[in-house]
Amino acid sequence: MDFFKHIDLDTLPKKKYRVIKYILDHPDEVISLNTADLAAKLKVDPVTIIKACQSIGLAGFHDLKKRLKDTVRNQEKKSSFTQVLSEFEVSTTTDEAIRNALSRDLEMLTGTIEKVSFEKITQTCQAIITSRQTYIIGLGYIGAVATYLQSILRSHLPKVHAVTEYNGMLFDYMGHFGKGDVVLAIGFDQCQNQTIKALKKGKDRGATAIALTDSEYSPLCTYSKYNLFVHPAPHYFLSPLIGAFSICNALKHCIVEMTKPTSTRQSRAYQKLVEEENVYYN
Q1: What is this structure's pTM?
Q2: Are residues 120 and 257 in the same domain?
Q3: For 22-52, how does the pLDDT look when each residue is reduced to its tens digit (9 = 90+)?
Q4: Which residues does 92 contact at the CB level (< 8 Å), separation at least 6?
């Protein structure tokens, strides 16, 4: 495990050995614990946890957890890329390629239903409904998700903005972040630094920070109050977008339910306007 694979456990005293050995054997669990939790689990003093971390060259338990998160995240990325590359190198028919892609999308949606918290979706919707302004940040190819979410919400909530461009547009909106706003940042796998900085800026300015991502180890989760997780499907480059679009639809339907009967009246008025303007070809 990168830094950790060079640790010589045999040189550690018995108590420190047991602490570090447990950490190496259970990295995913340890990441979610604090010093007191781990100490209670191992039946040692919290000071022993800190000293064990220092004995392998780290500043303390917080430093160790940061290293663990980086290592786990890097392993996931390498595994994902290796799986995709190896699959592309295998010869197959076009029919099989199409069927596999569609099947994985279905797997992605099924996994997202199991992974996402319905409570967090409801809390997110309540925050958006009551916000002064809602800023949806999706940079690069993820901008399609931000634009889609804005488009399906704006007939009910015109104070929703999609932020999809770097530099000027992003900085302009960041200057308006404030208390009572919602900043919803979307990022997967290798999340853009600008997205992370924007979410942090929103939190620092008193906005409700929300992350739509595919891993609890995402740097976005460091600053978010609510996390909406999609199922990570590493076999397909754009797989997180499938779950993300589905989460957008869930947010839309939840907001409609939470704002009835106003939302129903707005939908009827929208339909009437569409008919009056003869928008669609008949």
Answers
A1: 0.70
A2: yes
A3: 888 888 788 888 999 899 989 899 999 999 9
A4: 100
